[in-house]
Design a protein that fits this description.
Blueprint: E1 7-18, E2 21-31, E3 36-40, H1 50-61
Antiparallel strand pairs: 1-2, 2-3
């Protein structure tokens, strides 16, 4: 997988705490120029279930 210029790979299966619960991020990158994290959740299917979409949105809205 190629992300392009400006991305730094920070790790795989990184643990974060969200709402007091431990969660694992499949791949974590940092974009140097934009100064933001990029979270990649790898799935076997292309379809996102409603639950997974809510989970991803919740992670994106946490500060």
């Amino acid at each position: 997988m190629e992300m392009g210029n400006g991305f730094a790979f920070l790790g795989k299966q990184r643990e974060i705490i969200v709402g007091g619960r431990s969660r694992k991020i499949d791949l974590l990158f940092y974009h140097i120029r934009l100064r933001c994290y990029v979270v990649c959740e790898l799935k076997e299917r292309m379809e996102l279930l409603k639950k997974e979409l809510k989970h991803t949105k919740r992670l994106m809205n946490k500060n």
